[in-house]
């Protein structure tokens, strides 16, 4: 892949850095495109891989800035009864102004 706005000293386009993560189901789960002038952040790439693996295995999502060991969010498609069975270690329900109990955190 080339970045048409990035040129070398001879005026030729400079390749950009692309990263694609493909899941076991052979679908693209993530695509990063870095300009040639920007280095890749390997910590972020590993964080994303950890997040994708947890989401696929446990029906959870990871919040912004999540790191390995931090709580994850239980999918809203999982009922409280299912959550009790799936997460026997327990979970915490966020106290929302609406008093709805859909935002639940657990550790996996």
UniProtKB/TrEMBL annotation:
<dbReference type="Pfam" id="PF10417">
    <property type="entry name" value="1-cysPrx_C"/>
</dbReference>
<feature type="domain" description="Peroxiredoxin C-terminal">
    <location>
        <begin position="52"/>
        <end position="89"/>
    </location>
</feature>
<dbReference type="InterPro" id="IPR036249">
    <property type="entry name" value="Thioredoxin-like_sf"/>
</dbReference>
<dbReference type="GO" id="GO:0140824">
    <property type="term" value="F:thioredoxin-dependent peroxiredoxin activity"/>
</dbReference>
<protein>
    <recommendedName>
        <fullName>thioredoxin-dependent peroxiredoxin</fullName>
        <ecNumber>1.11.1.24</ecNumber>
    </recommendedName>
</protein>
<keyword id="KW-0560">Oxidoreductase</keyword>
<dbReference type="InterPro" id="IPR019479">
    <property type="entry name" value="Peroxiredoxin_C"/>
</dbReference>
């Amino acid at each position: 892949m080339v970045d048409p706005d990035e040129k070398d000293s001879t005026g030729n386009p400079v390749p950009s850095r692309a990263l694609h993560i493909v899941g076991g189901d052979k679908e693209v789960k993530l695509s990063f495109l870095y300009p040639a002038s920007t280095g890749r952040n390997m910590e972020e790439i590993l964080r994303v891989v950890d997040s994708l693996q947890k989401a696929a295995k446990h029906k959870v999502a990871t919040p912004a800035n999540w790191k390995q060991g931090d709580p994850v969010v239980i999918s809203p498609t999982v009922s409280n009864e299912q959550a009790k069975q799936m997460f026997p270690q327990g979970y915490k329900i966020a106290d929302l102004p609406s008093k709805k109990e859909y935002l639940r955190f657990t550790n996996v």
